[in-house]
UniProtKB/TrEMBL annotation:
Record GO cellular component, one term: cytosol
GO molecular function: phosphorelay response regulator activity; transcription cis-regulatory region binding
A Pfam family matched in the record: Trans_reg_C
Heme as UniProt keyword: no
Protein name according to UniProt: DNA-binding response OmpR family regulator
SMART domains attached to this UniProt entry: Trans_reg_C
InterPro entries recorded: CheY-like_superfamily, OmpR/PhoB-type_DNA-bd, Sig_transdc_resp-reg_C-effctor, Sig_transdc_resp-reg_receiver, WalR-like, WH-like_DNA-bd_sf
Length: 222
């Protein structure tokens, strides 16, 4: 899930709509709301955040350095100003990257993935036997051939790959794919998506790369 912080409602709604088209969950905050939420949010909720986008907001409330105390998710500044002075000021505040508007939503997602790869010293994909799982929105490949998946199943597979070797709970998967604040979807939908995904993987691979333990969650066996 991606968190957008901006005082302008139209900006938050606009980015949320664009992320939704890409199958990426998001949530928008005003700076004061965001500051209160970060201080009180559960660690499991923060782990579901893939990035923070900081737009027009109160710098004293939304501090990248303060965010670092609670989460390692990338922090990207959305800037309306193209001056070098402003860009350097944003980097000095502690952000990981500065994006000047207008910018395509896929470029933002690519930048987020690039930052996370560098932070984790990981490749741009995870390999499980003949299965290659990309982290940039592309469909996975089996022996070099694309394996088209519905966007929710692809996002779940990407999330498992991002946490390869570690077990994640159903709640963590739901929060990452649907967002922490989505009350219109039941959490049990995750089980249905993962069941369909595992069936397709078994048919293509001849084995199930997703290890499931009741009450403990899921783990990609890489």
């Amino acid at each position: 899930m991606i968190v957008i912080v901006d005082e302008r409602e139209l900006v938050k709604q606009g980015y949320s709509s664009l992320f939704d088209r890409e199958g990426v969950a998001s949530a928008g905050f005003r700076s004061t709301e965001f500051g209160e939420w970060v201080e009180s949010a559960a660690e499991s909720d923060l782990k579901s955040i893939s990035a923070f986008l900081i737009g027009n907001c109160d710098d004293d409330v939304v501090s990248p350095h303060r965010l670092r105390d609670r989460t390692g998710a990338p922090v990207i500044a959305l800037s309306d100003h193209h001056s070098l002075e402003n860009t350097l000021k944003l980097f000095e505040s502690g952000v990981d990257d500065v994006v000047h508007k207008p910018v395509h939503i896929r470029e933002i997602l690519a930048r987020i993935n690039a930052i996370r790869r560098r932070a984790n010293d990981d490749a741009a994909y995870t390999q499980v036997g003949p299965l290659r799982i990309f982290l940039d929105g592309r469909d996975p490949e089996i022996d070099g051939e694309p394996m088209p998946l519905p966007r929710r199943e692809r996002r779940i597979l990407e999330y498992l790959a991002t946490n390869s070797g570690r077990r994640v709970t159903k709640t963590q998967v739901f929060n990452a794919i649907y967002g922490i604040f989505d009350e219109d979807v039941e959490e049990n939908v995750v089980e249905s998506h993962i069941s369909k995904l595992r069936k397709k993987l078994r048919e293509k691979l001849g084995f199930d790369p997703v290890d499931s333990k009741r009450f403990l969650g899921y783990r990609l066996v890489a």
